[in-house]
Design goal:
- The protein is α/β, with parallel strands linked by helices.
- Helix content is about 30%, strand content about 25%.
- The protein contains six helices and nine strands, in the order βααβαβαβαβββββα.
- A nine-stranded mixed beta sheet has the order 2-1-3-4-9-8-7-5-6.
- Strand 3 (about 65), helix 4 and strand 4 (about 95) form a beta-alpha-beta unit.
- Helix 3 (about 50-60) runs parallel beside helix 4 (about 80-90).
- The longest helix is centred in the C-terminal third of the chain and has 19 residues, at about 215-235.
Length: about 240
């Protein structure tokens, strides 16, 4: 019997326009284990230049776009941002994570969510605390795989305010307090969100505020990509 070829990997596009920025090479240095785990499961395409990003988005249809830094929010990259928003509106998936939350100012983030995505999300607190999986998200994202997601984990993150409950994947509970070696613990704001996932047009937008590449956050990325893969099969 002739052996069957392995199934073709689905394409995930990493949009990483970090050249010349203060966060250049951060993604490779901090997230090497995540990159390896993604490469084992998906066909990874990556662009680190504006022209390369535009060419890829014109010629290919990945199941998801990963954006590990805030370069797409810069004025010189507005053309490719337009391609990303169009892709999501038409049914694609975009996930902001990694250094995105670390290297964007609060006003720039607030403006980005509102002007590019029509969202009222706001830059919230920056601290470490325990966050808990919100089972209510099942109502808005019934296919989001949760079996591999931790019920609770600690992350240092830029939290978001003004996120709808159904779009809040991980948030603090009444038991959560800020975790610091310097400052006295205080109750964490239960109205702020560390991981958000919302529908935009026909597609989905994800945000992970974690700045330290926690294993729980890696599981979130894989879960969102699993949903993206299922979504692509239905097209």
């Amino acid at each position: 019997m002739t052996p069957q070829p392995p199934p073709k990997k689905l394409t995930v596009f990493i949009l990483n326009l970090d050249k010349g920025q203060m966060y250049e090479d951060f993604f490779d240095g901090i997230y090497s284990d995540l990159i390896a785990s993604l490469d084992a499961k998906y066909h990874i395409q990556r662009a680190r230049s504006l022209s390369g990003a535009q060419r890829h988005l014109n010629e290919h249809q990945p199941i998801a776009i990963l954006l590990p830094d805030p370069a797409v929010t810069l004025e010189q990259n507005s053309a490719v941002l337009g391609q990303v928003t169009k892709y999501v509106q038409a049914g694609g998936f975009a996930i902001f994570f990694g250094s995105f939350s670390s290297f964007i100012t609060p006003p720039a983030m607030d403006k980005f969510w509102e002007r590019s995505w029509g969202l009222d999300w706001k830059f919230g607190n920056y601290h470490r605390t325990d966050v808990y999986l919100n089972r209510e998200v099942d109502r808005s994202v019934p296919q989001l795989p949760m079996s591999s997601l931790p019920t609770r984990y600690s992350q240092k993150a830029v939290f978001l305010a003004h996120v709808a409950s159904d779009d809040s994947v991980y948030r603090p509970s009444s038991d959560s307090v800020t975790q610091s070696r310097v400052f006295t613990p205080e109750p964490a704001n239960q109205n702020e969100v560390a991981v958000a996932f919302t529908k935009v047009g026909e597609g989905w937008l994800g945000y992970i505020g974690d700045v330290n590449n926690e294993q729980g956050s890696q599981a979130v990325i894989h879960s969102m990509l699993e949903l993206a893969a299922k979504h692509s099969e239905g097209k």
